[in-house]
């Protein structure tokens, strides 16, 4: 096993303190839906899937999106945290992570008009009611796509109920032993739908102006922050832009970031897209990072995480050195190689953080 380099530790392997939590490095497992739960309950698949990352030296692990209500699931197979029965199965996972020195967070979500759809490998579009689907809600009555369900426009009572659902889910996350909670307001799901003029045509206090369109998210964040321990970090994931004319954009994201910091948000997880089929995304290496860099520059007291086609340790380190972000979230690279962090450490001359049974698997050259 390699010894620590005599040179300066790479930023990728420099600890980061967030409130009372200290991440051992800057690599984060991004939330990724697995579509493998039943009735929202975590099972053996989730234990093994997330457990492998608890043994792999990441700075922070995130579960997939957990729905705050049954109607908030993307698919019938989504993970959930709307019922107390879902606490214990998740608690087994957090216990395992903590027993092996890992930190773990959960993403809380509501799919809105993109709910009641098939898992990607089971079909496309709406799951019919007779096959386990359900009625969906959204800012207004427009569907995401012709194959998707038509939502009922939310009343103010619906908005209050969903806000309370997020708060209750945050309380359950604490009981389940999570270190971090993230509010999902990206990728075209409910909270993002309210943010964007392309999905929100309301004329009440939740639609129209920027101040009205961000109101629902701010109310949710306020409720979650009040329910989640003050010393534990709160993340929010945002789509910085809809990649479509007339939609949500990076300038509104910066304005919202300032408001979220005031509400006690510690970290912004900056992604993009997912709201409209009209999006035209320019994809490339670290293509979303310029949005994260803009937020970090304009709101310097916020910690910023970037994600999206960051494949190599060298690329990740370069983004950190350039001041574009504070944390690097990885999705597909870690699906393909759960030991990405070990290999990155060896390549950068850093001693990998490895649990004792795995020490024989680390070599100077991998």
Helix content: 25-40%
Overall mean pLDDT stands at 95
Question: For this structure, what is the CATH class?
Answer: Alpha Beta
Tell how many strands the DSSP assignment holds: 13
What is the ordering of alpha helices and beta strands? EEEHEEHEEEHEHHHEHEHEHEHH
Query: What's the end-to-end separation, in Å?
Result: 11 Å
CATH architecture: Alpha-Beta Barrel
The CATH homology group name: Aldolase class I
| Count of discrete alpha- or pi-helical segments spanning 4 or more residues | 11
**Major beta-sheet overview:** 8 strands, parallel, barrel
Looking across the biggest beta sheet, what order are the strands in?
A: 3-4-6-9-10-11-12-13
* Alpha-beta classification: alpha/beta
- Residue share in β-strands: 15-25%
The 3D shape can be described as: globular
CATH topology: TIM Barrel
Using only C-alpha atoms, the radius of gyration works out to: 20 Å
Number of domains: 1
Low-confidence stretches: 1-6
